[in-house]
Amino acid sequence: MSSFHQLADIPVHNEEIGKIQMLAGENNMVLWGKIDAGSHVPNHSHPNEQITWLVKGKLRYVLSTGEDTVCEAGTVITIPGGIEHEVWYTEDCEIVEFFSPPRTDLWPVSAENPYGV
Known about the structure:
CATH topology: Jelly Rolls
Mean pLDDT: 92
CATH architecture: Sandwich
Number of strands: 10
Number of domains: 1
Largest sheet: 6 strands, antiparallel
CATH class: Mainly Beta
Order of helices and strands: EEEEEEEEEE
Number of helices: 0
Helix content: under 10%
CATH superfamily: Jelly Rolls
Structural class: mainly beta
Strand order of the largest sheet: 1-2-3-10-5-8
Shape: globular
């Protein structure tokens, strides 16, 4: 498997909330998303540490820690594993998310196929 990838070559997953691309290594994963305004990710948690970078748009993030924040482009959110969180996308958004370890519950990931398809 090559260590070098072009984002344009990574398969696009058409999901209910928008278009998602991902790349996984053995210990971490990155997800690029173009999320549609009005989308909602219900309250959930996972054991994976998560970092979300809001590149474009506006969203509202609610964490079980009591934090409830409207975020604009440039915001970076860190979420420890096990913390419940919920997201409302109030505008079309572009996000980059990092997970460690990889979120194999989202897509099957294997050493033979780092794109999760």
